[in-house]
């Protein structure tokens, strides 16, 4: 299943149970939870995504299947040394406003997840990882009404790449034993894009 199909699948499953958490926010939350020395339990994360809901019947089965598949796919990609992780966001054909909204939701979810995981103790995080958390706080406030032009399209693409690299960086500093830290490759997005 490709990223676009996975996104559509999770969106439909969450809509089927009238979840308030979006697909992007759900995966952001999961990535935040993975920034811990303890691997999060799928049931714990699913319970947080479906907090306050009691889905039944076919919609319940569909949302559990979709979230379980998302958990496994995200875990596999985060733990893969080939750096295949991608944030779960709408396809590039979606309107920029939808993609920007999802990007903000993803960051909100990540910040929530890292808080629940107890990983964000500024005194324990390296400066670089703290900067990432601060940047994601800013990105969470993204303006979804930005007009569609080439500059904003480029800025969005750079933010998505930054999010991908930033997630791997924070995970490297919070979840992995220091002897097994992989080098996170790729260039960081231009920090001016965030301001």
From TrEMBL:
Pfam family, one: UPF0149
Residue stretches spanning the membrane: none
Annotated InterPro entries: YgfB-like, YgfB-like_sf
Family to which this protein belongs: Belongs to the UPF0149 family.
Protein name: UPF0149 family protein
